[in-house]
Amino acid sequence: MGFLNFTARSSARIPNPAFSDLIDGWSIEVMPRTAAKIDDFRGILPAGTRVYVAHLEGTPIEDMVAAAKRLNAEGFPVMPHFPARSIPNAYTLEDWIQRYRGEADVKQALLLGGGASTPSGIFDSSIQLIESGLFDRHGFTHLHVAGHPEGNRDIDSDGSTANVDRALFWKEDFSTRTDAEMAILTQFAFDGRSVATWAERIQAAGVTLPIHVGIAGPAKLQTLIKYAISCGVGPSLKVLQKRALDVTRLLLPYEPTEVVADLANYTARNPGGLIRKLHVFPLGGIKKSAEWMGNHAPAENDTVFA
Q1: Residue 209 in contact with residue 175, Cβ under 8 Å?
Q2: For a FRET experiment, which of 13, 105, 124, 201 has its CA 20 to 30 Å from that of 98?
Q3: Buried (b) or exposed (e) across 84-104, using 16+ Cβ within 10 A?
Q4: How many degrees, rounded to 5, is the angle at CA 220 between CA 150 and CA 63?
Q5: DSSP-derived secondary structure for 115-142
Q6: Single pTM value for the model
């Protein structure tokens, strides 16, 4: 396998310092089955890159833990998903936590409601996972929660943001009562300005948690539209639809250059804002996403997440 060389930067690297500062410390998401196709992540990811391990319905916990253990052994801080509606009871939740802690030395978690429409047991939301107290009891150092810049119809069926806002304010309050460092991870978006508008709104309402903005890595346009529709991406879907109408760009692979530039310009103008990092959903492949980020990251990209 030919690994990417992070000591050499291609001519595609963007020299804008603000762009590079935003990319520095980026994270990425993998699934156990796709991780198994990579011989060694050290050849394609910068040292210290946080790797989120997505939990898909039906994936055995043994496979999840094995992927986390392997990534941790290769030197990457691992943050597995804990989808509330896929966890039937408190016993299972603690079993998963103990497995991650004991077998893979995991100390970080992304807490989600999950994609299942019907809970498999007693948990329906990430708030209930937090209220269990198990993550603090088992010494988790980082807890991330979901952010919804474009709302979430599964949570607010009327199209408002009342419920997602209420949940976010609760988590903001909890962050003052836990030793774990907390942050918000957003669903991938294609319109940086709408994300910035949302970030300003929740900050004005009292939220102080740093935001890690989800972006889609390079991929075919048709692939992105499919994922955007299935994941409920709202207003920024129009960005993809507009691109699809442009025949000159239809056959070209999508790259997140425009959305990252918009976010970088925003953070440069608003250094006190909540947007701090980027998180990559590698919808077109892990290697392609890692290469794109490597070409646009600072030359000295050895950041380890605090």
Answers
A1: yes
A2: 124
A3: bbbbeeeebbeebbebbbeeb
A4: 75
A5: S-SS-SSS--SHHHHHHT-HHHHTT--E
A6: 0.86
